[in-house]
Amino acid sequence: MATMQAVVDVTAKPSKKYMDKVLGYVALTKPRIIELLLITTVPTMFLAKKGVPGLALVLWTIAGGTLAAGGANGANMVIDRDIDAKMQRTKSRPLVTGAVSWQGALVFSVLLEVAAFIMLLAEVNLLSAVLALGATLFYVFVYTLLLKRNSTQNIVIGGAAGAMPVLVGWAAVTGGINLTPILLAAVIFTWTPPHFWALAIKYKEDYSNVNVPMLPAVKSLRRTTNEIIAYTIVTVVLTVVLIPLAKLNLIYVIAAVFGGVAFIYYSFKLKFDPTLKRALSLFKYSITYLTVLFLAVGVDALLIHRLQSF
Prior knowledge:
Helix 13 (250-272) packs antiparallel against helix 14 (276-309). This protein has helices at residues 2-28, 31-49, 55-79, 81-84, 94-97, 102-123, 126-147, 154-174, 179-202, 204-209, 215-218, 221-246, 250-272, 276-309. The N and C termini lie far apart (75 Å). The protein has 14 helices and no strands.
């Protein structure tokens, strides 16, 4: 009986170690962030098509975009592994726990980027592949290496990387870029600072301890909330400007106007009641806001297609 137990233990330990490593590599890609990127990409493809794009095109674009974003996130963790080990928010990341080595993570990230470029080039088009690669290079070299530890504008400028998947989705359908996807990307660009700073308020001590000049860690809460309000208002204005430019209809108008008013309301609530509870409420709402806004873009595009078909 004891011998059988020993056999079970010997076989169970390697299995668990293997699963921990697999899960570690998955965690490198930051799946929850990728999910948000895809929520913005697919509706943009519907708007670009003014209807339903081909299923194969959507799937290849999603797959390529997922690999590219995953590779960028993995490279980010390799670079930030020193400060990740000292921050409460990031101390469970796979490079900190030892589930994955930094060398393995780097190779994995590069392979993801190569696979993403080849996939998008072969199955979508050159412009989409170049834009996806450009987003990765910007995120890794401009945001992570150049700005994150040196400028309070880190997340502001770095937000350009998060806005790029919209351009990838549009280019996948049309083969080009015009003012509409640029404006959609601008919405994500200006949405990113209030979204992230609201969360950074919770972890401002973390950022301060590792000398990362995230705005809430180096400026007053008053300054932070004022900037959150400013970027929130600009975001809402851009979503309204998009209505005539993209010829969007009632569903999007309702989402943009009412959702935008609520976004501004949450940002002002934080200013006049600068508590952690208010900050986290704004953070959570900002995710809901962007999700609903882009779903409305996709639904509106479908309605436009339906109306034109009659």
